[in-house]
Specification:
The complex is a heterodimer of chains A (480) and B (148). In chain A, 72% of the residues lie in helices and 10% in strands. By secondary structure, chain A is of the alpha+beta class. In chain A, helix 5 runs antiparallel to helix 6. By secondary structure, chain B is an alpha/beta fold. Chain B has a single domain, classed as 3-Layer(aba) Sandwich (Rossmann fold). Helix content of chain B is 39%, strand content 16%. Chain B is built from five helices and five strands, in the order E-H-E-H-E-H-E-H-E-H. A five-stranded parallel beta sheet of chain B has the order 2-1-3-4-5. The chains are: A alpha+beta (480), B alpha/beta (148). At the A-B interface, helix 5 of A face helix 1 and helix 5 of B.
Chain lengths: 480, 148
Amino acid sequence: MVIGFAGLALIGIAAALLTARTSEHTQWVNHSYQVEVSIGRLQALIEQAETTRRGYVLTGHTSYADNARATAARIGPAIEAVAALTADNSRQTARIAGLREQLAAIAAEQDKTIALTRAGRRDEAVASFAAETGFRRMRAVRGLLSAMLADERSLLAARDAAQQSGLQTFWIVLVASGVLIVAVAAVSLAAITRYTRDLTTARDRLQLLNTDLEGAVAERTADLSRANEEIQRFAYIVSHDLRSPLVNVMGFTSELDAARQSLADLVDAAEQTAPEIVTDEARLAAREDLPEAIGFIRTSTQKMDRLINAILKLSREGRRVMTPETLPLDEIAAGVRDSLSHLAMERGAEIIVDSPLPELVSDRLAIEQILSNLVENAVKYLSPDRPGRIVISGQRTRDRVLIEVSDNGRGIAAADHSRIFDLFRRSGTQDQPGEGIGLAHVRALAYRLGGTIDVTSTFGEGSIFRLSLPLTLPDAGTTA
Amino acid sequence: MNEHRSVSIIMIEDDEGHARLIEKNIRRAGILNDIKHFTDGTSALDYLFKHADGPALNGPALVLLDLNLPDMSGTDILTKIKAEDSPVKRTPVVVLTTTDDKIEIQRCYDLGCNVYITKPVNYESFAQAIRQLGLFLSVIQVPDVILD
């Protein structure tokens, strides 16, 4: 391709050069013609001058004499013209020098005969005419002139030939350039076709890959949701099956307690009627050891029950179908604030909804639960040093909604920032009731809504929980 | 207790502990009816349909049914009891289980269960529920089995 275009450029330059040369040739040919014409004119003038001189000498009419003089006067410039035209040719210049010599002699002779004739000495003039070497000289002049003409002719022929050959070269170059242009065009066309074909193939492959990718993503998503479903079901079954033995543990603990009560009554009665049969060990067992043991079993099983319920709740929440609807966040935040205002008042905290909050399309119940959990946490974990101030704020970015719940509470140590979102994990002083479920639930819900939640907090100064949700939750229909 | 009208309680419950707790609390409610306990579905079905003392061949009964059984689902038993051609289709079935899944409850009622009770994990509530069930059993009218 590059070579082809370089060739085209060279051909362009060559054509320009050739055209210049051809016009030069033409100029030289024209020049030769001009020289020929001027030589012809010179010859005519010389012949005319000679003829009129002869006429005057023969007839004695003065008109011939005038004519001869006028013609002779024009010979000089005619010679100069030829000399100027042939200045570049040394042979011609030499001939012109000879010509000038001969002509000068002829002119002198002519002047002489005309002067004699005018003076009435015509016989003398005729005799001089007869004696003079004019005839010889004229022949020499003619010879010189024809030599000059011949020279110019040969030059003309050479120049013509050069012009012809230039023209021929030009044609050859033209044909070559034509061939080259066709070749370059063909190569270019082939290249373009190839590139286009490559491009089309690439595009097709890309499209295919894209389709495959979508398929792969869909497959992966299906796998994931299947796995998720499996986990949900597993959590449900496990927590459910754990409940059965727990019923027994709790039930028989109660039975045990009832039995212990009977035994304790027996010990009491025995102490009154026959104190000697009551050993210290029996008394201790009935009144302290057994109640203590039963108490521990009770609190532990109750805790276990709560944990199992929490897992059940989470798994059930995970199976709940999300129903997206347009939600006025202001209204929901106000609802959360009102439902927790009693608790907040008790603890000396105020809840502020930083209206206006943006609208979004999402699941109402999930959003309510998230907000309510976050605000409740804020109310629960206040700093004792200052009255609580909890702010619910929100803003809309391009296609997401950012909701913030910030407080001036006791804050969360940096080490616990990610831990608090784990199930059953809590942070700080354990002075509030709870199982460490709330934030795990919140995070699970946020994920299900296609969102994320994180926390920034300085221990002792307060926390900000940031919930980022998509502006529109797609209606997935049934989810795992 | 009237001999002809004696309603035997058939308890299908795989957990011995639960069975014992249920029985204790039923007794505490003053119910003295005979209680037959089965820990698996196969033997329970065998008794229900084939045993000489079973309800299909001998007198009215009431079934206390747990849904989580080792060999079959409680709903399978429920289906068999309430089937159109079952001799014991009128026998009241009380589903007494830990499951409180809405779909499961719905399904049991669809299959013809008469009462669905979720076992409370909290023992006080559990005992209370069973005692109330006992009181309920003491007033319930059970249809005679069509003997042929």
